[in-house]
Amino acid sequence: MTIPNTKILLSGPGRAKLVHDKTASKLIPLLDIAACGICATDRKGFWAPPGSMRLPLVPGHEFCGTLLTTGKRVVIWPAISCGQCSLCHQGQANLCEEIQLFGLHLDGGYQHHFSLPSALADKAIFIEIPPGLNWQQACMAEPFGCVIHSLAMITQPPESVCIYGAGLMGTLAARLIEHQWPQCQIEVRDPDPARQKLFVQNHPQNQVELVFLACSDPAAVSDGLAHLKPGGHMLLFSGLNRDDNPLHLDYNRIHRLEQTLHGSYGCLPADMERALDLMAKESVVVDDLITKVINLEQVPEALKKPASSSEFKTIIRNRN
Ligand SMILES: [Zn+2]
Ligand SMILES: [Zn+2]
After folding, report:
1. How far is the CA of 91 from the centre of ligand 2 (A)?
2. Which residue spans within the chain are E strands per DSSP?
3. What is the pLDDT of residue 191?
4. Non-local CB neighbours of 57 within 8 Å, separated by 6+ positions
5. In this structure, are strands 260-263 and 228-236 parallel, antiparallel, or unpaired?
6. Domains in the chain and their CATH numbers?
7. Cβ contacts of residue 33 below 8 Å, gap of 6+?
8. Mean pLDDT within 185-194
9. How far apart are CA 135 and CA 320, in angstroms?
């Protein structure tokens, strides 16, 4: 079936261009894409595509639009897992070893129309957008879902938390903590004073029960552990920059103080559903974090520029 498509094609480090595709495709068309978020990992992948990235490729994993079959407004879970392995069966599809991620292994959301090979077409997971949310807000379901996924590992409401990194993810974590644990004292640490100022609630604390790592600096891990109370928990939400300083862990301190480190990676469809509900029904506000809306033509330039400290989330919008 031939659907003319306009897309951003990444072909190598620093090389992305707008392509008008008129050729017949064997893929199954599924979704008219309305909007797609630009993730920090998209910017990293633009300059240094990871070895696992299939090139050329359409980037983007935070997208939403209208289903061609039903006309429903949906966001997409950003991956296809095998559905067969023990992790998939145990409800941990985000850890599936055969997982294929949009914008990494499969074409993603920087395009007008989303299609998949016929073998994968019925494996994509779509989540309906509740009434009242616009396309930009719906694009936040994935990043917010990742934060929800991570904080769900903490079953006892903590009295104090320190968040390292006041970017989009750290800010979303602060919003969720304020919402679900209103008694919790929040401290946010970020080397950028402009970003720190954005937090109304910022309580410096010596020792905290929970550390949320939303930055890629290994020094934050050691610092976080030094401020973690006995029995405390640390959420390893961000990956670390491999080329930075090596990581130093005080193993014996973790051992002696019975502290728990939780790895946290991506999200599940239920986390994205929860994110949509929090925005639509429980009035958790994210609109002020959507700092820029652009169109597909502007994407190659936008990827080249590093995000400024006042920029949280840029959304590519194809239509209203
Ligand atoms: Zn993302
Ligand atoms: Zn699997």
Report:
1. 10
2. 5-12, 15-21, 28-38, 62-67, 73-76, 79-80, 100-101, 113-116, 126-128, 160-164, 185-189, 208-213, 228-236, 260-263, 290-294, 313-317
3. 84
4. 9, 10, 103, 104, 107, 108
5. parallel
6. 5-142+267-317 (3.90.180.10), 154-263 (3.40.50.720)
7. 63, 64, 65, 109, 111, 112, 113, 114, 318
8. 86
9. 8
DSSP 175: H
Question: Which of 12, 13, 28, 38 minimizes the C-alpha distance to 296?
Answer: 38
What separation in Å is there between the alpha carbon of 84 and the centre of ligand 2? Answer: 5
Task: Please give the distance, rounded to the nearest whole angstrom, from the Cα atom of residue 4 to the centre of ligand 1.
Answer: 27
CA of 80 to the centre of ligand 2 (A): 9
Query: 208-243: per-residue pLDDT in tens?
Result: 999 999 998 888 999 999 999 999 999 999 998 876
- Cis preceding linkage at 300, omega within 30: no
- Terminal-residue alpha carbon distance, the chain: 26
Cα 147 off chain centre by: 8
Q: pTM for this one?
A: 0.95
Q: What is the pLDDT of residue 200?
A: 55
Tokens 């934050």, located at residue = 220
Ligand 2 center–CA 59 separation, angstroms = 23
Looking at the CA of 60, name the nearest ligand: 1
Distance from the CA of 273 to the center of ligand 2, in angstroms?
Answer: 21
